[in-house]
Every structure is written in structure tokens, then in C-alpha cells.
Amino acid sequence: MRKIFAGLMAVILMGAAFGHVSLSQAAAAADTTHEYGTESIRSLETASRLRELALLIDYYDEVLTQSARITRLLKTKSGKNAIARVSPN
Hints:
mainly alpha
């Protein structure tokens, strides 16, 4: 019985030690201002925002390009005929 109790206590102590080490590492990983500094984090946020804006610009550029192509197609006789063939009216 004592061997079982000693083994159980050893497992509990090892689990507590590993848990403490894991929590310490997690806390150190979460503290990015210590390692990277606030300025680095701000520059990453700025770069991320700039990337979002670049994607929006690309999207609206594509929308405007397609709009111009459709407008040009509608101004030609063959374009009007093509639209008339597929329109439900």
C-alpha cells in the first residue's frame, strides 16, 4: 500500500512540476513586450493594416476594371447583340 501511495505522490509531484514549467513558459511567451518591444508590435500592426488596405485597393481596382469592360462591351453593336441574346426580356 505504501508503494502505491509513494508512486501516486511521485506522479502528482511530477505533474505539478511539469505544469509549473509549462505555465512559466506560457507566461514568458505571452510577454512579447519584453522581448520585442512595443515599437515592434506597433510596426507589425501597421504592416498588417497596410496589407488589409492593399487588398481592398486590389478588390476595388478589379471591380472598376470589370465595370469598364462591361460598359465598353455594351457600347459596341456586337456587345448589345450579345446582351440581347442572353437577357430574359
